[in-house]
Amino acid sequence: MAWAIDVKGLTKEYNGFKAVDSLDLQVPQGSVFGFLGPNGSGKTTTIRMLLGIIKATSGGGKILNLDMEKDSLKIRAQTGYMSELPEMYGYMTGEEIIKFCQGFYPYWDREMVDRYARLFHLSLKNKISSFSKGMKSQLALILALAPGPSLLILDEPTSGLDPIKRVQFLNIIIREIVTSGKTVFFSSHLLGDVERVCDQVAFIKEGRLIKTTSLDKLKTQEKIIRVVFQKEPPPDLLEKPGIKKVERDGKAYLIYVEENFDEIFAAYEKVSHFILEVIDQNLEELFIDYMGGGEDV
User: Fold this and answer.
1) Which of 108, 120, 184, 274 reaches 20 to 30 Å from 75, CA-CA?
2) Which of 200, 216, 232 marks a domain boundary?
3) Which one, of 191, 190, 131, lies nearest residue 159 by Cα?
4) Does the keyword Nucleotide-binding apply (predicted)?
């Protein structure tokens, strides 16, 4: 498989504190990859290392088959980036900053710029200082897409957008980016947005990668089996490969399954029981489970 991002042992340390700790990450080319974690988990630090904005303490790898350290300028030339709080020159108009940014790139899709400016109802004649946070986010997306990047890195891109604008934004990702075979690296705490557009996800907590998987696998394999046995089950039934953890809920057992679901469920069907049911989990529930529950996301 070809990788848009392929890094090993990526670490960033500040005065003995590891903001990112030995991160191994592979993002398939052409995928929409969700990068999920609580506030302060290392998401933005990881993105800044990938872009060469800050230097890794150790580790490295390739972005778009280019060396992270040696080819950082080439990587940035092929990468569109949108931060959570886009910083733009407030004294410029929308049109002026578009022309300013255009000068840095050999290719610029002006037709796309105008199309999305109309869609977002952005008046490019107005100064950016008069734009709302949502309008600045929309302009930042346009600026990130206009050079036709092979990789688009989005850090909390829908933060500050109202529901209608968020739907427009996500539709653009699906229509403009995914259909053209580009790769999207999407960091967000709005899990519904991630669930709608991403096909791969990774969970990061306290600077360490916990899990990387496809969204389809999460939906088909990661489920909870709720069972009330007629008598105490044999211990090996609760320890089958693919069972993540077991909890008690009164007389019921809650079996958290992360893989081999069909095999595990078939085994439980063979054991005498009063109740046997499957509880599906959405991405938010899985996120809370992986993060340890109850944290502010």
Assistant:
1) 120
2) 216
3) 190
4) yes
Domain boundary among 161, 189, 216: 216
Residue 292 Ramachandran class (φ > 0 left, ψ -120 to 50 alpha, else beta): left
Residues 6+ apart with CB under 8 A from 42: 12, 19, 20, 21, 23, 204, 206, 207, 208
Distance CA 172, CA 119 (A): 10
Q: For the purposes of burial, counting CB atoms within 10 Å of the CB of 18, is it exposed (0-12), middle (13-18) or buried (19 or more)?
A: middle
**Total tally of structural domains belonging to the chain:** 2
Residues in the chain: 297
What is the amino acid identity at position 269?
A: E
Tens digits of pLDDT across the chain (297 residues): 799 999 999 999 999 899 999 999 999 999 999 999 988 899 999 999 999 999 999 999 999 999 998 998 899 989 999 987 778 899 999 999 999 999 988 899 999 999 989 988 999 999 999 998 888 988 998 999 999 999 999 998 877 677 887 888 788 777 777 777 889 999 987 888 888 889 999 999 999 999 999 998 888 889 999 999 999 999 899 999 999 999 999 999 999 999 999 999 999 999 999 999 999 988 888 888 888 764 433
Residue 290 falls inside a structural domain: no
User: Taking the model in full, what pTM does it have?
Assistant: 0.85
Q: By the 8 A CB rule, do 47 and 41 touch?
A: no
Cβ atoms of residues 124 and 100 within 8 Å: no
| Residues 78/151, Cβ–Cβ less than 8 Å | yes
- The angle at the Cα of 182, spanning 208 to 98, to the nearest 5 degrees, equals 100
56 and 120 housed in the same domain: yes
Residues 166 and 273 in one domain: no
